[in-house]
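Look over this record before class:
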Amino acid sequence: MCRLEKCVEDCDHRDECEMGMGLLKEGKVQKFKSSVVSKSGMKLWILRATTTALIWICVFQLMAIGETWGPRLLKGWPSCFNPADHSLAVQSSSIPAKVRLPPKRVYINNGYLMVSCNGGLNQMRAAICDMVAIARYLNVTLIVPELDKTSFWADPSEFQDIFDVDHFISSLRDEVRILKDLPPRLKKRVELGIIYSLPPISWSDLSYYLDQILPLVRKHKVLHLTRTDTRLANNGLPLEIQKLRCRVNFNSLRFTPQIEELGRKAISILREKGPFLVLHLRYEMDMLAFSGCSHGCNSEEVEELTRLRYAYPWWKEKVIDSEMKRREGFCPLTPEETALVLDALGIDRNVQIYIAAGEIYGGERRMATLKSSFHNLVRKETLLKPVDLKFFQNHSSQMAALDYLVSLASDIFIPTYDGNMAKVVEGHRRFLGFKKTISLDRKLLVGLVDRYMNGSLGWDEFSYLVKETHSLRMGSPKLRVVIPDRPKEEDYFYANPQECLQLLDEPLVSR
């Protein structure tokens, strides 16, 4: 019997029964609605919680990768975290982008190469370029080169004091692996003196390094090359090796930010006053002692230069005929000869002349003629304040780096001797677009100067001959001279790295 019939029988009054039935139905409906509402609310809460969690996960992910993707994803959008600080967003937009490094070159390492450079700044600079190319060819790891501290100038500067070492390493990582130091185990061996050292043979081609040097690296794991100047041939090398030498020289060997900044300051001061000429007056004590050139020196100075030459055992030539060397063009021009030549070339007597050199031997006495002819002579010591040069004093290579930067920027560069700085700067100026570099023909010039001084040649003829002789010696495009079996007499690669030059419309000339 159904509940409805039972309810009717049990109730005294039908209305009461109907009321009870109504209340019963209403309770069930309310209970059902409450259940439905409860389940719906639970679902909504779960949905909201899930959505919130997903949003926060996304936020944290964006924050985690913000350094790489954030700037591109959020560029131009207002900050959600601190909308009031708009100035920070403006400042961040001016921060330079990180330098994109070349990918690392992966290769089987044949060992480690340590190198000790010798000579002045530019002699060491060229050697470093050669050693990078050799390390690349042999598939070895190069340790940051050690610079010369035993030369005449005894400069204690380390590589990182002159060059931007981090840029040097990172800019070449697609060519060769370069480390600041040996791995600990090998470093300990070197500290104990267990290392094989030798000076490579000068002007060698790559077969020498492949056949004789590489087996030594594989055998000893670490090889130390000493006296690394001019150890790679000028010519006959693969194009990729020549281009790598240029890449190191013109891109990777960047001076430290402090040197670069001071160089820019010196150039700016010169530019404010107009065009300027850089005269690399290579008339310094070490140059004269080494070459045996003493023209114009008194007897006391000649004796002093001779003593210095004998004091350095690696300067092999001891007994030197100074006048004979001068006639052959193997001596730097004296300051007096330089004054005559500049005047004969038609150099404006009021132009700024920056003397790129160390202390001139003979001091003011030897500079008097040049100063009387060209009044606007400046040096880094007179151009810059003492406080600017405070940290560069007694560091000849760092001072030479300043001269190098100013020389690159000059309107005309004139070296009085074709030493390492003259050659490397000439080559760098060629790379920058064949900027005017007057390469003096010293052998011809000293003959002309002597004839003018003894009265057998008038000024007009003297000036004409000087100009005519140098009309094709201005840094214009030319073929590098190749002399098989006589590499020392060839044109130096770093003076004319023709494989790396963007040739202009001007034709190449040969001489």
Q: What stands out?
A: The chain has 21 helices and nine strands. Strands lie at 112-116, 141-143, 178-179, 196-198, 222-226, 276-280, 352-355, 377-378, 412-415.
